[in-house]
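tool=predict chain=A
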Amino acid sequence: MSAEKVTVYSRPGCPFCMSLRAGLQRSGLAFNEVDIWQDPEAADVVRSIADGNETVPTVVIGDWKAVNPSTGEVLSAVAEHAPHLLPA
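tool=predict ok
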């Protein structure tokens, strides 16, 4: 089963989040960004992926999860797990 969305967990002022956001926006990939400081459940998700830490950006695409991935890593994961989400 393929993923239905790309979720990027972030927080305000995070330079790694800003870099990933800019790269994904340049690529044209649609993604859902969630601020872990505003959403306690999102913070729980990140801690479950990042060994108890609130390390962002953390990206989830279906069963694929990564902490601080590059734009290229995210696009490769989308191509593998949710190719229908790739920009035209």
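The beta strands are 7-10, 32-35, 58-61, 64-67. The radius of gyration is 12 Å.
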